Amino acid sequence: MTLKEATEGLEYTIKQIETDDEEMNAFLFSLGCYTGEPITVISHLKGGCVVSIKDGRYNIDNQLADAIVV
Fold first, then answer.
1. In this structure, is the dihedral angle defined by the CA atoms of residues 66, 67, 69 and 70, taken in order, positive or negative?
2. Distance of CA 61 to CAs 9, 49, 54, Å?
3. Which end of the chain, N or C, is less surrounded by CB atoms within 10 Å?
4. DSSP collapsed to 3 states, the chain
5. What is the pLDDT of residue 15?
6. Tens digits of residue pLDDT in 1-55
């Protein structure tokens, strides 16, 4: 399942990042979003979702949310 389909408030472990876009990979890595890292969906928004990674909260769009498999 992707982050777009994840339940709010539950902690998941990132299994895979499905993208061939190196910029997107680099951006997600800079947020601390990589395989094996815990991630929590705080809320779903119309254009994406708010996630908690490590000690930060980030608003990511649907394209990024679809690339993160949990």
1. negative
2. 18, 6, 19
3. N
4. CEHHHCCCCCEEECCEECCCCHHHHHHHHHHCCCCCCEEEEEEEECCEEEEEECCEEEEEEHHHHHHEEC
5. 96
6. 999 999 999 999 999 999 888 998 898 899 889 899 999 999 999 989 999 998 8
Q: Which residue has the tokens 């947020």?
A: 31
- pLDDT value at residue 57: 94
Q: Indicate the number of domains in the chain.
A: 1
Does residue 13 contact residue 36 with C-beta atoms inside 8 Å? yes
* pTM summary value: 0.87
Residue 2: strand pairing partners: 69
Domain encompassing residue 16: 3-69
